[in-house]
Each structure stands twice: as structure tokens, then as C-alpha cells.
Amino acid sequence: MSSQSVLIDAGANRVEIVCFPGDDPGFLAAVQRMAGDIGTRVLDRDLDQALAVALSKSYPAVKLRRRDTLASRGEAARIIYAFRDGRAAPTRTVHPRDATQ
Fold first, then answer.
1. Does residue 98 surpass a pLDDT of 90?
2. Spatial CA neighbour of 64 closest among 48, 42, 44
3. Which residue from 54, 58, 76, 87 has the highest number of Cβ atoms inside 10 Å of its Cβ?
4. 3-state secondary structure labels for all residues of 21-68
């Protein structure tokens, strides 16, 4: 599953939002638009929660997860993962006839 990133640069506070799936230009545009607006109005620690609320109006299954600082390797940007469908990979739909095989 591919991803694309949105970078929000608010002075010393850089936040990278990694979007899944990366091949949905509508989701990427919504994240970019809403994060740009919200990022100027809320504290960095509240960005993921505020963005999740805003995105859930159009994407009810959306989940945002902040990358733990222990996972960073000295990068300046903070990382938030945005999962349009609540997870990185979409759920696989199994046709009923295939479930019995």
C-alpha cells in the first residue's frame, strides 16, 4: 500500500502527515486543506485530534496516529499517520462462494 505525505511547516514546528492510501487524491487534498487551516489555529499536540474530527465529517472511518518519538531517527518533523479507512491496508472483501474453499 503506497502513501503520500503532506508537510505542514509552522515555523519551528514541522509536521508531516503520511496519508494512506496514497492513491486517493481527494483524501490527500482534504488532509492538506484541513491541516493547513487547523495547523495555524491549534497547538501541535492537538493537531491530530482536531484533524481527525474535521476529516471524520467526510471520512467517517478515518484514524490518525502520531508516531512515537522513540521511532524517530532524529528527524525534525513530527509524523502523523492518517488512515482514510482506519488502517493502512483496506479490508479484503471475500465473496461468499470463496469463503467455503
1. no
2. 48
3. 54
4. CCCCHHHHHHHHHHHHHHHCCCCHHHHHHHHHHHHHCCCCCCEEEECC
pTM value?
A: 0.75
Write the pLDDT tens digit of every residue in 2-36: 778 888 775 566 788 999 998 999 999 999 999 88
- The shares of helix, strand and coil residues in the chain, as percent rounded to the nearest 5, are 35, 25, 40
C-beta separation of 20 from 88 below 8 A: yes
Q: Could you say which DSSP state residue 101 is in?
A: -
Sign of CA dihedral 63, 64, 68, 73: positive
Region 49-61 average pLDDT: 94
Say if CB 17 and CB 80 are below 8 A apart.
Answer: yes
Nearest to 27 by CA among 69, 90, 76, 73: 90
pLDDT > 70: percent of the chain: 67
